[in-house]
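Hi F.,

I've been meaning to write this up properly since the lab meeting, where we talked about keeping a consistent format for the predictions we share between groups. The idea is simple: the sequence comes first, exactly as it goes in, then the structure tokens exactly as they come out, then a line or two of notes. No screenshots and no reformatting. I'm using this chain as the first example so we have something concrete to point to.
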Amino acid sequence: MRIRDESQPAPGHPPRHAARVRLGRPRTLVAALAVGGLAVTGLASVSGAAETDAEAGGTAAKAAAAQLEKLDRGLVSVRSGSDNLVSWRWLATDPDNVAFNVYRGSTKVNASPITGSTNYLDKGAAATETYTVRAVVNGAEQPASPGALQFRSGYLDVPISPPAAGSDYTYEANDASVGDLDGDGDLDLVLKWQPTNAKDNSQSGVTGNTIVDGYTLQGKRLWRVDLGRNIRSGAHYTQFQVYDYDYDGKAEVAMKTADGTVDGAGKTIGSASADYRNSSGYVLSGPEFLTMFNGSTGAALDTVDYVPARGTVSSWGDSYGNRVDRFLAGTAYLNGSTPSLVAARGYYTRTVIAAWDFKGGKLTRKWTFDTNSSTNSGKGYDGQGNHALAIGDVDGDSKDEIVYGSMAVDDNGSGLWTTKNGHGDAAHLGDLDPSRPGLEYFKVDEDSSKPSSYLADAKTGQVLWTTPASGDNGRGAAGDIWAGNDGAEMWSAKDDQIRSASGAAKGRKPSSMNFLSWWDGDPVRELLDGTRIDKYGTSGETRQLTASGVHSNNGTKANPSLSGDILGDWREEVIWPTSDNTALRIYSTPYETDRRITTLLHDRQYREALAWQNTAYNQPPHPSFFLGNKMATPPRPSIKTP
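Output, unedited:
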């Protein structure tokens, strides 16, 4: 492992990314102001937003070096017209002043070392050409990278093998995640197979088993886990986390399991004969487990009781089995340097979140947050969850918090704040307003008596502005998609305008409000919906990609299997299953860029977001810093690798 002196940045290069300090915001109540259907509000509705040392004039500690993946260059060659776009990762572990040379075969193609970006357009080259890249450090060329993955048709197909069909269902490739399963420095894929008779929790009926596979990017299947008949299939039942929890250089895979789950080594967890399905297809009895699997083999490493147990079904909001089985999962650096597994249950009434560490082959519970506990009961934390969660360092102490719908839980398992605005379907955590210190949080609401959407300070939960109540506001998005406005734009299904970070109406909202993607060469983000990518314009969108021969997932949610910066430079790849479910088709941008940004995989918040993206109603990832038009010099994360 290379240890680098982080105390002094290299001359002419930005300082390392440290926790941002919020400088004593006024804590007086701000009167609500009506601004074109917008309410600008203060702290009146926020519980638990206590003053911190930083606000009282102290300073936040320097961010700890987080343990993240040791990655290779992720080199890709993408066909772009009659040219090849070659791109690669700038790693957080590289020197700030590193340069690069690109080789086609044994021939160097760049005239001088490349310093302004991490891509190179090889004009007129054949689609079949092979490439490597070599770092140049203090004038000395380093060893060649592994050869480039070739996207000869603009995409790369990773072969996958569908499970055998049942009597009344087949299998579709569904959500995916990434992690270095075998420790070779490149990312592998973990894929959830969903039967075509999968159910929403509100729907009765027996389902086929949920199957989870591990694959290399070359299409080698490493293992298959069959979750068994006692794990119902559907978007809310199986949330899987792929992460290197024990810092051995290989990712593990964590999932909820039950009697009859068969691991990748063919061993059954619990009783192989147990069948707890009732006449309506629900599983409302029997033991529930949490299992950590070996990412290389799929073998179960440790299995513990799932926390919390279901207990009395009706205590979660209904008696037939809908709300009791609403599960969320994530990965958080609760101590600032090492990752913990987060597993949760419930959001309509009671919520329980358990944090787990995995060391020495054992899962150990770190803490449990329960809205029914004597500490939290009656404080407005219950009934606040979304169909997803977000994770990031919201209070600038270098440790992660869990933003859980309309409330947040601190790194130590204590309630941090609640807006009491209740449940919703979509939310975005990021530096949405770069003119303010720290992170912001945009959320849409389902309660017809609450604001249809709002922007909050992610540290305190202070609601900065709202849009009027208008019933179930089922969709919303936030990101800098338009260079004509500073900071991120926000829009939702129940609002007829796109809004600025201050809440001001800015005109036509986009035709989609789903996923986002940094796709072309500028830092403004594009719109990702279904199987297409569009660039926003004030009068209409411009199509940048129409993926062919693929399908989106999860019905009307129309999300990809995974979207994020997983290969090449800082732009984002998109993974869709092919229409016949025999491959995962990875698209990577064919556009040049003049921007040099550290791989987003080494931004802790972004990497965590890739891990929780598959959770329930998938949401796009956001980094810990503002990436958009007029952005500041992007930070260089302080990390360590195995």
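Notes:
Residues 316 and 323 are 6 Å apart (CA to CA).
The first helix runs from residue 604 to 612.

If this format works for you, I'll send the rest the same way.

G.
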